[in-house]
Amino acid sequence: MTEETPAQYAGPKRVLSGVQSSGALHLGNYLGALVKFTRLQHEMDTFIFVADLHSITAWQEPALLAAQTREIAAAYIAAGLDPKVATIFPQSAVPEHAELAWIFNCVARLGWLDRMTQFKEKSGQHKERSSVGLYTYPVLQAADILLYKATHVPVGEDQKQHLELTRDIAGKFNHDFDAPGFFPLPESLIQGPGARVMSLRDGLAKMSKSDPSDASRINLMDDADTIANKIKRAKTDPLPVPETVEGLEGRPEADNLVGIYAALTGATKAEVIAEFGGKGFGTLKPALAAVAVDKLGPVGGEMRRLMSDPTEIDSVLKAGAEKARAAAAPVLAETRKRVGFWGA
Ligand code: TRP
User: Fold this and answer.
1) Distance from the alpha carbon of residue 233 to the mean position of ligand 1, in angstroms
2) Which residues, listed in sequence order, are joined to residue 17 by a DSSP beta bridge?
3) What are the residue numbers of the active site?
4) How many whole angstroms from 308 Cα to the centroid of ligand 1?
5) What is the per-residue pLDDT across 197-225, written as a single tens digit (0 to 9) for each?
6) 10-24: per-residue pLDDT in tens?
7) Which residues touch 289 (CB under 8 Å, ≥6 apart)?
8) Beta strand pairing status for 14-19 and 187-189?
9) Full-prediction pTM beyond 0.90?
């Protein structure tokens, strides 16, 4: 592996991230990803895409895929991403991603991919029946990022290893093709409130769209009654809210509810505890339900409005894809030249 410091890359700071278009988004995606994107768009040039090339690494019903892509785009916009500020686009509308991914498939080493824990988890007992795409998924992710020379990548904890791989690919490319500092070595942005929202049924499991229990998560399109009910039924232990942050240790469900309340209100856990410490969850839960309905209700409403007529979303995605292609083209052209392709 090559040694290169990020300092060697002298280009501008740029944010890039994406969410897969497979299944409904939930509170974890909202706090862990969407809210972060909306903040970052005002700090750096921001590219946010719908990772539909990644979605098809597992079977996706063709008749549903475009609607799922629109739904993610609707969530981006409803959460506050401004298409005039951030570039919002579907990955598959920018074929440069796939082309760069191929080149990176020839840069990345089998040994590097063999270490990827997410592949092991997703392929489970059936490695030999997984798609080849699922295996090279992190290479495509590196291409997503480096195609725009992104320097900052807001992602969940589970993506840290893919970011490390992205840096290894960037470093090896820069080294092998005698192009020091050509690709940046991007950083993951993981911290922040709401970085990890856990299941409402099990404080040790991440809130996930693949959890068979719908009561384990709050979906962005849930209506107010559903949100309130799920919070009311959320698992807790019999003790009251602790009086100190340390008191949350070893109480994953209590910690999760306090954390969600904090993230939704922009407060710290300590502030939440100052307000609710010593009181029962019978007091915290209705307050949390009110806050959740207040914050998420309008997001779901805006998503439903956007989804009811795809014209607006489609025009955002089309304009975003054009902007993305314009940004990607010179990077890919330079990459092709470095590799030595005919005509490049
Ligand atoms: N793998 C990411 C996830 O599951 C989604 C993704 C694909 C992504 N390409 C990306 C995230 C590039 C950040 C940057 O969350």
Assistant:
1) 32
2) 48
3) 122, 206, 209
4) 27
5) 999 999 999 999 889 999 999 999 999 99
6) 999 999 999 998 778
7) 227, 228, 231, 232
8) unpaired
9) yes
